Design the sequence.
């Protein structure tokens, strides 16, 4: 991939800004259009994590570490998810001080309405080359230049 | 028995992984950086499993993963990570899994967890048999 020249024109900057605005709107609208629109983004992250993680790692400590957050917001989110019947908890047999959190069958059904799935489905419909480019470009944007080049 | 390439720049983790994997009876090759690992892959007839740390000498292995998938499309891949200041595990896992069907394991892990990850990664590859 060729590097952009160091000085971008105002028009190019505006174009890039508009492109990112498109993506931001796409994501925001997908979260508000789902049948489960009263689930917040952090709650979705927790549901996804619980769906894809072994029981021994489904504790507040591991969830907090994975999402790079302190315990407090995670504990609040889990309390909300418990109230909604989307997760349940039981005492951790390996550590009586903590609980193992699991999805309920209702939580699993709600995950089928994950807002990210709709956008992933649109990406899936792109031609193969466009899909590969989109994935690679997304990764390049996510990593800083230093992280990609090790400076 | 499978041929496993372990790519890890932390010597103590490399030794732990090597012991854990060889306990299963697999043959092991090791590398401490992605360039050495790619050279090894190009010299070797086949590698069944690649286990790599996401950060090798401060550089992400995303480009390395693309090359592994290109050089050894049949290899099962597991990426492990101890985290980085600017990148959450959630982001790291998404970066890794956007490259391909790759298992992700957050550090610290126990032996049985790396064994489970090897088994799950191997299910994507039809030419491996379970050792347990």
Sequence:
């Amino acid at each position: 991939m060729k590097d952009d020249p160091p000085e971008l024109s105002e028009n190019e900057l505006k174009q890039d800004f508009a492109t990112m605005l498109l993506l931001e709107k796409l994501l925001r609208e997908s979260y508000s259009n789902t049948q489960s629109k009263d689930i917040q983004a952090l709650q979705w992250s927790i549901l996804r994590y619980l769906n894809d993680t072994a029981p021994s790692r489904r504790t507040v400590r591991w969830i907090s570490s994975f999402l790079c957050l302190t315990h407090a917001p995670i504990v609040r989110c889990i309390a909300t998810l418990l109230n909604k019947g989307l997760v349940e908890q039981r005492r951790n047999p390996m550590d009586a001080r903590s609980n193992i959190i699991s999805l309920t069958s209702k939580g699993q059904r709600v995950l089928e309405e994950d807002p990210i799935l709709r956008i992933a489905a649109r990406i899936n419909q792109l031609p193969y080359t466009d899909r590969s480019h989109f994935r690679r470009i997304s990764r390049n944007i996510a990593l800083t230049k230093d992280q990609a080049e090790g400076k | 028995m499978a041929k496993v390439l372990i790519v890890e720049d932390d010597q103590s983790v490399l030794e732990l992984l090597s012991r854990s994997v060889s306990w299963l009876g697999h043959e092991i090759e090791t590398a401490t950086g992605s360039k050495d690992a790619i050279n090894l892959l190009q010299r070797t007839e086949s590698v069944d499993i690649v286990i790599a740390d996401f950060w090798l000498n401060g550089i992400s292995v995303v480009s390395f993963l693309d090359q592994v998938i290109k050089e050894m499309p049949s290899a099962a891949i597991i990426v492990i990570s101890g985290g980085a200041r600017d990148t959450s595990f959630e982001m790291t896992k998404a970066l890794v899994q956007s490259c391909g069907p790759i298992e992700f394991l957050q550090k610290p892990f126990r032996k049985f967890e790396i064994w489970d990850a090897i088994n799950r990664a191997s299910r994507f590859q039809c030419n491996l048999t379970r050792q347990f």
